[in-house]
Amino acid sequence: MLNWLPHPIKGSLSFLLYVVNTLFWFVPIMLLAILKLLPIQRWQAWMTYLLDAMAVAWISVNNLTTRIFTSIKWRVEGLEKLSRKDWYLIIANHQSWADILILQNIFNRKIPFIKFFLKKELLYVPFMGLCWWALDFPFMKRYSKKLLQKRPELKGKDIETTRKACAKFRFKPVSIMNFVEGTRFTQDKHDRQQSPFQHLLKPKAGGTAFVLGAMGEQLHKLLDVTIHYPGGIPTFWDYISGKVHAITVNIKVLPIAKELIGDYHDQAYRERFQQWLNQLWLEKDQQLARLETGAGK
Questions:
Q1: How far is the C-alpha of 59 from the C-alpha of 65, rounded, in Å?
Q2: What is the reported pLDDT for 8?
Q3: Which of 61, 125, 141, 175 is deepest in the core (most CB within 10 A)?
Q4: Measuring CA to CA, how many Å separate 189 from each of 174, 183, 230, 285?
Q5: Contact status, residue 84 vs residue 112, Cβ threshold 8 Å
Q6: pTM for this one?
Q7: Which residues of 153-170 are buried (b: 16+ CB within 10 A; e: fewer)?
């Protein structure tokens, strides 16, 4: 709509609207979160539905901002198989901070509101940390191998803590997001890792296995998402300032087999799960290679 404006102006106005929109929804979200503390199960369930509805509205306004200041040619495959009444685990390749906005853009109102597993330290991020807490984003605490060796009694505590945090998702559909690579792709990281993939970093199987171990059979389907930028990987600023002209997103809906759920501390399960994830990542790398050469268009 306003794509004719210079990029610096579009970016500045977009960022300002994102901030204003966040502050606007912060107030009612926190108010409902406080009301939700009343220990009545039906009341808390009702508050949860209202909170998620506010979060969807929050994302919807952000998406409107994107439409106003950008002119992106979207090519999205796989949305027709989705439902807002199902439980999903989402995994995706990670190249830019814009990935999060893109996932929120394409999935908003198509599946349950997306919630990320977050490190416990992120609870203290100004405004956003409280919003994530209010919206029931599960905060997890991971224990290093070194600490587990010193204190073996902590083994399994991380999964148990997260399982308790996710118990509230049992009766209401939810979408849990996990970036398997653990960080954004850069050529420098790729080279330092000596990644066997051309367009991807090595997948970190522990994080995904951790989610499956914590939530078990609550999750019904896996969404394997592949994001490709035909014009090259953009920065967050590139995205909000209208410099991105095309985005391709492919969504594969996969079943979550029972053998994918287990204890990651068990060596046999760990090896089986790593093999499964590496094969999934190999197929994703091949798909990105086809898109890069134009064969996937």
A1: 10
A2: 95
A3: 175
A4: 32, 9, 21, 16
A5: yes
A6: 0.88
A7: eeebebbebbbebbeebe
